[in-house]
Structure formats: structure tokens, C-alpha cells
Amino acid sequence: MTANVTTRISIAASASEVFEYLTNLKYYLLWNPQITNLSGHGKLKLNSTYSTTSNVLGVTIKSKNVITKFRADKLIQIENKTGLVHYIARFTLKPDRKKTLVICATTVSSESSAFAFAVPVLKLLARRELQTDLQALKLACEHQLLQ
Questions:
Q1: What pLDDT was estimated at residue 146?
Q2: What's residue 114's pLDDT?
Q3: Orientation of helix 15-23 relative to helix 119-146, angle to 10°
Q4: What is d(CA 45, CA 66) in angstroms, rounded to the nearest whole number?
Q5: What is the CATH number of the domain that holds 29?
Q6: What does the alpha-carbon distance between residue 71 and residue 93 come to, in Å, rounded to a whole number?
Q7: How far is Cα 94 from Cα 75, in angstroms, rounded to an integer?
């Protein structure tokens, strides 16, 4: 079962500032509220790996993530092929004056019978999680600029 979801948000920060939040693990918990545990530290780059434990709808999901595409201040792609849910999340940044448009295109798949419900429901759940992440990213980036 596979679902493709694209979400976007405009953030009042430069692409480099937003990219810092996306690629520095010290900021990860600020914009990934479903993550309960994170291994690793420092800045991500191409082929970096890190592990997470997330709680989604009361289900604990352990993941090993790999950075498979990376262009500074423009794009980061994160892939997870472990656990119940596999995903590819591509964050593309498009600067526009004093704002940055962040587009997150994600493919979520699972062979688990726990996710045997219809694709539209999986898509709805993935969209909700991604919108929450992007809203938290916006708050983290814009709040930092005010300090």
C-alpha cells in the first residue's frame, strides 16, 4: 500500500535559515513533534544516517533514516526502509524575497496488515503528520528570528 502526499508552507526566513533547521539534528525535535527519541547529533549531509523512535496514533515506529539527496539550502531527501512504515520525504526550498516556500513531497508505504486500511486513509494520516511537521518548522524558524 502506497500513498503520495505533497504539502507546502511559506516561512518568513531565508532558505539557509530554514535549511539549518531541516539538517541540524539539534533542531529536529522542535519540528518533528511525533519523534520521542533520536540518535545522532550534528549536521546532516549526503549519506548521513540516524535513527528515530516516533509515536504516531499511539503506535511506536522505529526508523533508520538515510539522507539520499542533498543540495545545500535547496533540497534534502530522507529515506526510511525499516520498520512498519517506509517513506521517502523530499524537502525542496524555494526562496522568495524574505520568505522561503518549503515543499515536502512524500511517499509512504507499508506492507504491514496494521495499515491495511484504504489508501485514502493512509494519505490523510500522512498529510496530517506532514502539515504538523511543517507548521512546527515554521514556528521554530520564525521564533528564532525574533530572538
A1: 46
A2: 58
A3: 120
A4: 9
A5: 3.30.530.20
A6: 10
A7: 9
- Among all chains, which residue has been given the C-alpha cell 490523510? 124
CA gap 59, 82 in Å, rounded: 15
Helix (H, G, I), strand (E, B) or coil at 82: coil
**Cell numbers describing residue 26:** 539539534
Q: Are 94 and 13 in contact (CB under 8 A)?
A: no
If we measure between CA atoms, which residue out of 28, 64, 32 comes closest to residue 47?
Answer: 64
For residue 124, the enclosing domain spans 2-146
Give the chain's domain count.
1
pLDDT at 119: 59
Q: pTM to 2 decimals?
A: 0.83
Which secondary-structure segment (H or E) carries 125?
helix 119-146
Residues of the chain with pLDDT under 50: 146-147
Strand-pairing partners, residue 108, are: 3, 87
What residues pair up with 107 in beta bridges, in sequence order? 4, 88
C-beta separation of 82 from 54 below 8 A: no
